[in-house]
Amino acid sequence: MRGRQANPVLAVLLLAGLTAALGLAFVTQAPNRLISGVGVSLAKVIGAGGSRGWALTPALLLVAAACGAPTRAWTRGLTLLGATGSLAGLTWLAGTHASALLSDDMPLGRTSLGGGYWTMAVLCGLAAAEALRGWSARAGVVLIGGLFVVAPVVVMLLNGHLDALSLLKEYANRQEVFDAALQRHLLLVAATVVPTVLIGVPLGVLASRRPGTQPALLSVLNLIQTVPSIALFALLMVPLAALATRWPVLAQWGVSGIGVAPAVTALTLYSLLPMVRSTMAGLGQIPPGVLEAATGMGMTRAQQFWRVEVPLAWPVWLSGLRVTTVQAIGLAMVSALIGAGGFGAVMFQGLLSSAVDLVLLGVVPVVALAVVADGLFKVLAEWTNR
Amino acid sequence: MTATRAMDAMIEFQQVGKSFNGQAVVEDFSLAIAPGEFTVLIGRSGSGKSTTLKMINRLVEHDRGKILFAGQEIRSFKPEDLRRRMGYAIQSTGLFPHWTVERNIACVPELLKWPAARIRDRVTELLDLLQLPPDTYRGRYPHQLSGGQQQRVGVARALAADPDVLLMDEPFGALDPITREALQLEMSRIHRLSGKTIVLVTHDIDEALRLGSRVVLLDHGRIVQAGTPRQLLAEPANDLVRDFIGRADIGLRLLALDTVASRMRAEPVESSTAPPLRDTDTLREALSALIALGATRLPVVDAAGTPRGQLHLADLVQTAA
């Protein structure tokens, strides 16, 4: 009976975690930044006598939870606690190990998080997500649960326990660059999403009002979507540079062949397709009878639009805006290639100098931004749908 | 005579025509609908009955001829103003899914900027009229209602601003037979109580004969016959009408137009164990009861259960009345 009720998903995750713990390097360490590191197993990090093994005791909660039926509240609670604790323990171990290395004998030593750490961290996340999904389908609950899971790691980040890790050392060396990249990245996304909404929504409304315009509009937008992003940036450089030379006023406003202007233009062009499509889909799924009734009741065109069509199209449209925003957060990485800055600049610098931790310093915040934006939009969607 | 009639009519079609893509769907359509009349437009799919209805509130604009509303040409009104004076109910109900029952019903009064208190009272009154207890249903959303309840709300919404005219486009077409009949009775009652001018489109001949004070049969956009249910049944203009009203059932449908009271003999009843007929039952129902019970006569009682007399089987075939 117990066997029948066990949680197979969690068991598989645990098994995968065990494999990662035994088979992959937990961290890698090198005497300095330029030399590639040597893997260190989890067992070594824990210490010969298992002196730091207590940090992994939360994993036992996961083992216990795996024995119970996944539908029970206590197994979900246990899974969530176990995943949170395991993630915290793993991170603490990595931070502690890195500090030890620095203070021991290698003042310039670098400790990077290895495949083992990342795999186990992701598995903890999956276990927590599984438990949260069972708990409630509401995005607000999932978002708060997610914050709970990463909270201990954030605390360690803030109190300096992880400062000895190579990733944080790269951050310390480039704090100003990082902060500027964050600001620029957010600016790029905002400067993309706002015009996308302002242009995409009217186009979507037009396309659903006049079906005759759809083939032309959609084929243009689809065509843009098929142009690789780097090519699109390159294509925009020439006309924008020409504009700036022709009218210097535009150059004063920041229009030029490289930098923010072509980046935002290209990102907006890419974002238009999902925005127009979701506007059309939102308006298109309104039952025709509802529109006929609205007209038949004597609503004016504007009343019908604002009172009936907008609220009924809203959920679909909002999920389109979510996709558009998440896509823009990711695509903005590439725009660093034409000098628009953002986290892409950090990432490309890392790639060019083969510094994996610098690459991560550019990538991890973007992943976090995308996840948070996605969650916030889902919460907003629930909020506005009562 | 015709001039005064035109003045008095609530809605009047004068040689109205409508074409879609060069194909005439309504042609040379002339009809005057008097205030308080319950007109049923009936015909097969594509006969132009729905188009005709929608030309009244300008959801479809007519191409030829004139349509008058209360003596004035409908094009002299702003479409919104015209529509707010005409209730409109459709088969799919078209209830706004994001609004409560209350807000749905309040739609036109809100457009007309009635004061909030008056709207609230009106909603209560209409929910009562359509037998949806206001306290229970006011705050519900359409998806929380059954099909029949949704259509009741649809009718209440159409009646909300006390319109001069009620237009109904196959309002009961999607309902199961029992719910449909209940709502048809409801409509009859509302028509009697309110004296509203109602134009209803259907393809169900029983619905047409049950509800209409006048039935207009259309085919290929032209009127085939217009008259009272009795006229259609007793003097069908041609084979098409006969086909439509169901040749084999004409007699039974005629019986359905009259009540037991009209053929009953007010005579003392010999003691009988047979279940009595009600004087308000239709003769069709009475015939069915006579046959089912194998009787040649049945006692008749009124609503209070007081004996009124007897109905004889033989009297059903008399056409004296």
Question: Percent helix among the residues of chain B?
Answer: 25-40%
Largest interface: A-B, 18 and 23 residues
Structural class by sheet pairing and helices of chain B: alpha/beta
CATH fold naming of the largest domain in chain B: Rossmann fold
Tally of DSSP β-strands of chain A: 3
Number of strand elements of chain B: 13
Helix content of chain A: over 70%
Assign the CATH superfamily of the largest domain in chain B: P-loop containing nucleotide triphosphate hydrolases
| Biggest sheet layout of chain B | 6 strands, mixed
**Shape by Cα distribution of chain B:** globular
Elements of chain A, N to C (H/E): HHEEHHHEHHHHHHHHHHHH
Number of domains of chain B: 2
Provide a count of the helices of chain A: 17
Q: Per CATH, which architecture of the largest domain in chain B?
A: 3-Layer(aba) Sandwich
Q: Which radius of gyration of chain B do the C-alpha atoms yield?
A: 22 Å
The overall average pLDDT of chain A, rounded, is 87
Number of helices, counting only DSSP H or I runs of 4 residues or more of chain B: 16
Strand content bin of chain A: under 5%
Parts with pLDDT < 50 across at least 5 consecutive residues of chain B:
1-6
